[in-house]
Description:
Blueprint: H1 40-50, H2 55-75, H3 87-92, H4 98-103, H5 120-141, H6 143-163, H7 190-206, H8 213-218, H9 224-236, H10 243-259, H11 273-295, H12 307-310, H13 314-338, H14 344-353, H15 359-384, H16 396-417, H17 426-429
Helix pairs in contact: 2-5, 5-6, 5-7, 6-7, 6-10, 6-11, 7-10, 13-14, 13-15, 14-15, 15-16
Amino acid sequence: MCRGCGSIVGAGQKECAVCGASVSSSPTTTNKPNAVVADSETLRFARAVLDRPYKFTIVLLVANIFVFLLMWQASGIPFSVLAPLPNEVLILFGAKLNYFIQTKHQWWRFVTPMFVHVNLLHLMVNMYSLWIVGPYVEKLYGSAKFVVFWVSTGVAGVVASYLTVRPGMSVGPVARFLFKTADDPSAGASGALFGLVGVLFVFGIKFRHELPEGFKRAFGTGMLPIILINLFIGYLGRGFIDNAAHLGGLVSGAMLALVVDYRRPGERSGIAVTWQVLQIAAIALVAVSFLKTAQHFRDPLPASLTNQTLQLPDQTKFVSFAKAMNDAQEAFYFVIKDHDVTRAESAVKALESAPSLDPKADELRERLKNLLLKAKALDASSAKDSTKPMPRNSQQPQAELTTDFVSWSKEYNTWLKTTGRTYGLVEESETESSPK
């Protein structure tokens, strides 16, 4: 802690990044030629700003830690810094998963991920970053604007992550930095944290003519090394770091800072009614989102979204999916042609446990399961009425079912030739799916 302005100083630093004063334990002697003496304007400005409270930064810290403790307790795994929580736990507590947003319309998954963390190390890194960056933004802009910044940039990061999941897209090393071909759970406060960094970056540039020298060094272009280092780390870890969420938060934070003014030293602490309303709305949005999460907490997860399945490589998931689809088609043939239903029940179970690849694949799988169940029911009905005279229209239900299957088969083969090719094994699995 700097004795001159009260700002937080990193371990090992000899000077305060804000006011430039020496923070060494030994007294500073001004007769040394290289001694740094903070100018009075920087000290006055820093004390006027940094003496303000930062209670909502602490509230966010406590909220994130509390949610993680609930997740860890629910997981039942031994305490570990590096061990990741199971994907099932991440999903139940509100991690972003495009499957649920698209098919179940669970919109609250755009909000809750900013309070969900993968493991203890993930939480510790993000909370340390919040402790360093959060107080500056809250003291400069006030608690109301800080809360709005946090929630809006966090949501923007999740939206960016949602939009960059492209299962059918062929991505190279550069595109993989931003786009993802697998719909894996995404969680963490880093999108909102990048948003706060974007706010401070634009703040330092926008108000550079009125800021003291120490604040110019700390913010604005002084944030560039932090931004570039984190983007470089994101590029190295592009296989598991959600860079789209980081960039979404950074850009949205910068855009907010462009249009929002800050609380200058000496200004009254009164808050505009608009910002009070926005703050309440942001807090209410978070509360309602977690209420919706609690309401759906006991909902069973589809078998295709278990932790083991989500972690399978794309090709392995495709092989399991294609095998289940092919077995179900063969079972359908046997029911229609030979009235043999012995394979139908096991084929239906295989379809229900097949991995999820994308929404269209899930729809095709569900339709095939329904066709197989209808064929089985039709065969059972025909067997029951076999002793009765054959009605003239007895072949109509089977003909309609066959027509539906042919229509389904065309859609499935189209999916195989387009999206299915991205999984690499389509040529082995493409078969004409029509009853003979």
